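**Backbone geometry record:**
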Amino acid sequence: MTLLGLDSRSTYFKWKKNPESAKLTPDKLERLSYIFGIYKALQLLLPNADSADSWIKRPNSALPFQGKSALERMLTGRVADLYVVRQYLDGQRGWS
């Protein structure tokens, strides 16, 4: 819910039950774009699902993470943090 910027559990469950009812604001679309981009970058960098899952949860000493995991950074709820993780992964792929 935090990654999508949802503030209501009922909205989440409504979306899950009936995806056509989802109202995607520009903020939600931006968040989804970053989330899908992060997912794609992880699939390319770490094709093994366990490795990708582990990386996103593991503490990271890279500058953008300052010892926290990428997931912790993303769970602040700010779109800018999704952007930073996406930018970092794109840089690792050579897509700066």
